[in-house]
Specification:
With 217 residues, the protein is α/β, with parallel strands linked by helices. It has six helices and five strands, in the order E-H-E-H-E-H-E-H-E-H-H. The longest helix has 16 residues. The chain binds zinc ion.
Length: 217
């Protein structure tokens, strides 16, 4: 079963990669450079795919950055908000229609290589802030993917109702190497520990009573 996976190099999509391989999917990973603040996550995705011998392509969407500049992830003049993921200030991290844009390209790639599925690591913690991670969006995307090409393409989101802590729990069982994942919105040597992404990641590891390998040492 051929499956295209949108792989950011973060915790969720990397866990999904391990899960797809365990389920015997033939995975083709896609990462996107849309002019985000740093490409540290993409570097992690490259390492993981190399380690797992999964074909990986990086799509440059950097020419789109000026069109999507109203986000702290694509505009260095907008500061990264600190605090919990559910706070109103986290809306500054929304890149407009990012999942719609990436999914469209992934659906085209899937159609091109005869893959029947596009997998995304969206999860319940994304719903509050990111409109194109919510179930209503995913259901509509699935309907569109079914009629986009000669044969239907399924949108596969097994983490849609899973918490980040639940994803780490699944990943620990699968032996995910979380030292090869990056979550922090900033691209420094170590995670900042203060941005919404860092706070949510720390809570996910704490819920499983394990230390985040990125925060050891
Ligand atoms: Zn951070």
């Amino acid at each position: 079963m051929k499956t295209v996976l949108i792989l950011s190099g973060g915790l969720d999509s990397t866990t999904l990669l391990y899960e797809l391989l365990a389920e015997k999917h033939e995975v083709y990973a896609l990462s996107f450079d849309y002019g985000q603040r740093h490409v540290k996550e993409i570097g992690m995705a490259m390492h993981t795919c190399h380690h797992l011998q999964v074909p990986h392509r990086i799509v440059s969407l950097s020419s789109l950055t000026p069109l999507l500049s109203n986000s702290s992830l694509t505009n260095p003049d907008i500061p990264i908000p600190y605090g919990s993921y559910e706070e109103e200030s986290m809306k500054l991290t929304v890149v407009p229609a990012r999942n719609l844009i990436m999914s469209s390209i992934a659906i085209g790639y899937a159609a091109n290589i005869g893959a029947g599925q596009v997998a995304l690591g969206v999860h319940a913690g994304d719903h509050a802030i990111y409109p194109d991670c919510r179930p209503a969006f995913i259901y509509a995307l699935n309907a569109v993917a079914h009629i986009s090409h000669f044969t239907p393409i399924n949108i596969y989101t097994p983490f849609m109702y899973e918490t980040k802590g639940g994803i780490v729990k699944r990943g620990l069982k699968l032996g995910v190497d979380y030292s090869l994942t990056w979550t922090c919105y900033e691209g420094k040597d170590k995670p900042c520990g203060k941005c919404g992404a860092c706070v949510e990641r720390a809570e996910a590891f704490a819920a499983n009573h394990v230390e985040d390998p990125l925060c050891i040492g």
